[in-house]
Amino acid sequence: MSAPTSTEGPPTSSSSTNPIRGALCVLTGTFLLTCHDAISKFMTTEYSVGEVMVYRSAAPLVLLSLILLHSDGPRALLPRSPKGNLTRGILAALTSFLVVSAYARMPLADALTIIFASPIFVTALSAPLLGENVSWRRWLAVMAGFLGVVVMVNPTGDVIRLGAIIAVGASLAAAFRDVLTRRLGTADSTTSIMFYSTLCTALFGLPFMGLGGASLPSIEDWGLFLIAGFFVTSAHWLLIKAYQIAEASLVAPLRYVAIVYAVIIGFLVFDEQPGIAQFLGASIVIFAGVYIVRPERKHLG
User: Which of 3, 11, 21, 24 is deepest in the core (most CB within 10 A)?
Assistant: First the structure.
């Protein structure tokens, strides 16, 4: 799942920041995450969305459980905030389901651009749900971002692409997930949160495995699912590390390079060629997203 996550690490002092390493972490992590998304899209040609969710979760579940057991024994598997983790896990599973469904129905770059509108939705939701003060400049950026999404959805007459609607749903689900993550705070470790979100994703996909007839992957396909699991786990670790060693105002905008990766991979692997509307909508979404995550500057005088 590539939907962007609010995985901010602990605050770092200016003396401990390392912007170059942070940039390398986010660029590498974003590339791995986009490769994971491409594999997921490719696997939907042979497997149902539920099968993709379950099979690609197998390796991360084993890895995360081993990390938790090694760090603090069996009790590490028990969350400090069960209700919060369950709710976040359900939202993460819903996000994953919608993301994979969108990839199955539309070009990789188009879906990813709409999904990357989630920081814009987070900003819109942070005022009513978190009580955060959102400046009028950021509200303008939110409205501009919505405009970009509308351009990407590209409604023609009374017909709106189903994949685009699903991608918007994925972006909204990711936004609610990230708002809840902020409310959870640091009650549980990042590894614990990732473990329960991955577990919920696998369980959520089980009822959908039988649609169209479930089938066990071949050895080659198991290899692809394992690679996808390694990519997504490594990507999230690198992104979390990036937030720990560099300022969020540097890390967050760099994540939009995923759209560039998606355009290249989509062209090379799936022969996808985005149109003018997609380029225009992506530009608006990226501009609005970068403006939203930049720090507010106080004007003197």
Answer: 3
